[in-house]
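for the writeup, i need someone to sanity check this before i put it in the appendix. the sequnce is what the collaborator sent (i think, or maybe the updated version? ugh). structure was predicted straight from it, no edits. if anything looks off just tell me and ill rerun, i have time this weekend
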Amino acid sequence: MAHVDVDRPGASEPHDEIRLPSGTFVPREDDDRFMRWVNAEIAAGRADEDTVCLVKMRRVPSIRELADIMKSGVRVYKDIQYYTYISRVPLAVAQMLRNNPLVEWIGFFSSDSKVLAGSSLVEGLPVTVHSLVQDSDELRSDLSRAGAKVDRYRESIGRGATDFEYTITIDPSRINQVTSLWWVYLVYQDQGVFHGGLRDSRALGITRFTLLRSLVHWVGTRIPFRAGLICVLEHGRARAFHKFIIITMILLFTHDSAIRWEEVQGALQEGPCSKIYTRS
């Protein structure tokens, strides 16, 4: 079992903003452009289709709350700062999701939002593409149709979850065909962009908190215990870690520990939530 004492967020701590690869913005709660587009699509007879969008919550949702949302057919792929989830939402349930008291805003996840700020593409250099889902022949076919050649694929642990990453070669003039793919969420060209200091770290939402959580997850994959601390860190994201105490018991797999594990098991039994807060 792990315990963390977390300071309460300060009044000046920004929680309204959303940090995308392309930059940071603050959505307006009364912005209904996405829902007007959804209603137009439904009226055109496309209610059985779905779309990848941004769903911003009013706070960090519990495992049970996420499981309830996913029961309606919503696929929650990735969380970004603050309280925002890249999700695949059936058009038919978009209005019900928007009416959920936990949901503050739903908006477009446009192609332009996926290119890392400051990452101008140069012809002849490899391009890195991060995917919401694991490698498959279908994804490679999508890249091929977009004019890209896959040079490498790898999976790595980042921010407590597994990242799926392609390295491709493509004409920069055709990169829009890659960013338009529903499963792509980040595109950049490594010209030292990750070695530029705090500015680039903030562009990706990388903080001391996320680095701490990644370290705990890395340790948890190499010794025989599962870190219940990850659950605490997940629910404590966006908080100020000025002072904290970590108390961890190393147990065998048969004595696996987690915080509120009874709730975790209940949520997993009730909904398709098998990838939430579980070990990668």
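The radius of gyration is 19 Å. The longest strand covers residues 149-158.
thx in advance!!
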